[in-house]
Amino acid sequence: MNLLDIAEPAFVVNSKDPVSRVASRMFRAGRHEVLVFEDKDYKGIVIARDLAKRKINEPDKIRIGKFVRMIKPISPETPLEDVINSILINDYKSVPVQKGKKFFVLTKLNILNRLKNDPWFKNKSAGDIMLFPHCVSSSDSITTAMAVLRDLNISRLPVIDEKDRIEGLVDAIDLLKADTDRKRVGMGERAGAKIPLREVYVTSLMNKNIPKARPSTPVKGLIEMMLEKKIPCVVIEDRGRVAGIVTPRLILKLIGKKVEGVYVRISGLQEEDDFIKSVIDEEIRNEVRKLGKFFPVRQMVIHVDRYHETGRRIKYSVKARMMTGRGMFFADDHAWDVTKAVRGVLQKFEREILKKKKRREVYGRAP
Questions:
Q1: Most confident range, picked from 159-168, 266-275, 289-298
Q2: pLDDT in tens, 166-201
């Protein structure tokens, strides 16, 4: 599959543009990410969530190039499973796709639109994957919402009333716009008057027209709601109250194979033979079984890269992330033998798990 079939044209800005101008453009276009260029050279990507986390005192003077995150563009021929793996491992909001001198962006919603009929989603509903979200009250100020978003490194916040009923949703772009454009004009206010954000209710920014569903709603239905509203989340309600939230990331985690009750996703092995793949599968199965005795393992994502070739020899780089009931673990390793590199990653996971278990026994609680 060619990724250009599902990607969308990139939203581009110049590295010398001030943050205030870029934030305003992102808000008007409803775009969570922009590609940054200096002249004709690609410099990286800027994400609304990253900007909203920063306390930018002079957004009219600070250039957007200061906040670029370098994400290497991928080829349109890159396997979709590799893209998904990269998004999950690196926590990307989206990835740039380059064809010649043209750039495109592939978002998680683009991917879900392509995969909404995937068998991994069959018989799965919102209740199987939802998480209870961090929320703000309708009586909270914009300053409070910004503090929560920054402290928790999240992109959106449901706004609830005193009875835990959903009123709307505020996301990073809304808060970024408010923070970089302090001159607010409203009913009864003098044009151009500056109002402290701590005195402005978050309800003045929230989007009321958001996707809402029940815990029994099928995953495919959740995806269709996100696509229809062009909002990358669905708030789950139960008996009129907020029960959880589902994001594209939570849905993408369903794509993978289940090993000992754990979802495992490994990519980058397309060019390896079946015997090598079977050896790696067995290594992972044994390690998951072993680690499960210490902490509940929920998901493991592994990506293999070939990065150096000498004659017939190939050097491999393996990066992995493991989600457990006691937090997230990261590991990487490299070797001339792919099975050895994977084994090295799994051993590092085991050492970290044992360290955490030992600390927990010493202090009587999770560190």
A1: 159-168
A2: 999 998 888 887 777 653 333 334 444 555 666 778
Q: If you average pLDDT over residues 53-77, what whole number do you get?
A: 88
Assess if residue 214 is contained within a domain. Answer: yes
Question: Does residue 279 have a pLDDT over 70?
Answer: yes
Alpha-carbon Rg for the chain in angstroms: 22
Domain stops at, among 88, 115, 142: 115
Strand partners, 262: 259
Tell me whether residue 236 is exposed, middle or buried, using C-beta atoms within 10 angstroms of its C-beta: 0 to 12, 13 to 18, 19 or more: buried
Going 236 to 48 to 200 to 148, the CA torsion angle's sign is positive
Do 240 and 314 belong to one domain?
A: no
* 9, amino acid identity: P
pTM value > 0.85 = no
On whether residue 359 sits in a domain, the answer given is yes
Residue ending a domain, choose from 115, 147, 164: 115
Work out the widest C-alpha separation in the chain, in whole angstroms. 75
Kindly write down the DSSP assignment for every residue of 23-86, as one continuous string.
Answer: HHHHHHHT-SEEEEEETTEEEEEEEHHHHHHS--S-TTTSBGGGG-B----B-TTS-HHHHHHH
Q: Which residue range(s) make up the domain with 286?
A: 257-363
Query: What length is written for the chain?
Result: 367
Residues 268 and 303 in one domain: yes
Closest CA to 126 of 208, 242, 263: 242
Q: Residues 63-88: what's their mean pLDDT?
A: 87
